[in-house]
Amino acid sequence: MMKKWFISVFSCLAMAWVAPVAAQITPTPTVQPAQAAQTMRDTLQTDTSRQQIAIFTPLYLDSAFDITGNYRYDHKTFPKQSSAGLEFWEGAELAIDSLRKEGVQLDVHVYDIKAPAQQLDSILNSEAFKATDLIIGQVNANEAAKFASVAATMDIPFINANLPSDAGITNNPHYVILNSTLATHCVGIYRFLQKNYSLQDIIVFRKKGVQEDRVRNYFTEFEKTTAVKLKFKYVTLEDNFTADKLRLHLDEEKPNICLAGSLDESFARNLCQQLALTSTAGSPNVIVGMPTWDGIDFEKSQFKNLEVIYSTPFYVAPTSKLALSVHENFKNTFYSRPSDMVFRGFETLYHFAHLLQLYGSNIGSSLSDKKYMLFSEFDIQPVINKTTMTLDYFENKKLYFVKKVDGVVKTVY
Q1: Are 149 and 175 in contact (CB under 8 A)?
Q2: Given the DSSP bridges, would you call strands 400-405 and 408-412 parallel, antiparallel or unpaired?
Q3: What percent of the chain has pLDDT over 90?
Q4: Percent of the chain with pLDDT over 70
């Protein structure tokens, strides 16, 4: 049943894949194939008296539907590559519904960022798109660079909702990163350890690799600027290491404070599993990990008796009334649980739509405003280039630290 609901919504989007789906703040219209061309013409005629928001998300409609609009799969199959993009849009629709109830007057348009390049360029160069006041995107590195450039040309903000990277972008105050970069996480982790374990020895377990060298370099560079130096001991592990290899570096008389110096999830799982074997319920080892650990299931028995802490810029408290409402909505409508991208789409559009209405063309200088936040708190700050001393972009510097024991969230710092 859930797949049928998603395919139905997916099909509606396909009817107007090069045009706005929501000409006003209203739910996605149901469009029959014969109406598609007229709908595309109609939705492009937006009310220029209202502010315009463009959402770009990876729907992969061209690979899911043929040229006549027929679905390429059977109705029991949903293309996995489209899930994240559609779920982000489903979250945005929840924001649209809330904004409409609050009387906020905006035009919201959704586009398939995976449409052929020629069609995307046609959209971006169109007269209708020139009226856009804000761009929100679920992007990869190349797409982030492209839309940041477009936003700079149009003198409007581009909100990168998912990619934790500067994408090589410099000197562009129109570019906003919500999913904090690795450099920001490393600084945040160092500060977290300073606050909680400043007097203890900290073992940094890592593997060989370019990315691992970057992580170490971020720690080292921040260490040069801070008065409280941590007592790091770096240990490089070979592939398929065991608990016996870890014990060579652990103190059996007390809990050990460990830090994972790698983003590799396979390395993370093995490290946590082997550390758990050296840990006890009465004296658990502590492992501080990376933002990629948010997707690891720590409820499994092999992680028992280990305190796992990792950083994340997005945290949805499961007991919040709004989160419970979203879960209930998805349970009743889609017979499923909402993914992180649903919450991301909801809070991103809701927050920045309100800021756009509040500040209008001055939104670019008001990105640090913390009004109208739903699940996570954004702390958007300018990132200054140390060489040129110019503003490269804006970034969300807010990090949460989640502690899990036996897969259960015990504390959120």
Answers
A1: no
A2: antiparallel
A3: 73
A4: 84
CA atoms of 289 and 324, how far apart (whole Å): 28
* Exposure b/e, 68-99, CB count within 10 A at least 16 = b: ebebeeeeeebbeebbbbbbbbbbbbbbbebb
The answer to whether 242 touches 278, Cβ cutoff 8 Å, is no
Please say whether the beta carbons of 312 and 177 come within 8 A: no
Distance CA(351)–CA(19), nearest Å, equals: 24
Q: With cut-offs at 50, 70 and 90, classify the pLDDT of residue 24.
A: very low
| Alpha carbon distance 86, 66 (integer Å) | 18
Q: What is the CA radius of gyration of the chain?
A: 23
Task: Confirm if 116 and 62 have CB atoms less than 8 A apart.
Answer: yes
**Torsion sign across C-alpha atoms 340, 344, 345, 350:** positive
pLDDT of the residue at 276? 95
Within the chain, how many helices (H) and strands (E) appear?
12, 14
Place of tokens 């804000």: 134
What pLDDT is stored for residue 64 in this prediction? Answer: 61
Q: How far is CA 181 from the centre of its chain?
A: 11
Does residue 72 contact residue 66 with C-beta atoms inside 8 Å?
yes
Per the CB < 8 A criterion, the answer to whether 163 and 177 are in contact is yes
**Mean pLDDT across the stretch 196-207?**
96
pLDDT digits (tens, 9 = 90+) for 293-341: 988 989 888 999 999 999 999 999 989 999 999 999 888 887 788 999 9
User: Are 172 and 148 spatial neighbours (Cβ–Cβ below 8 Å)?
Assistant: yes
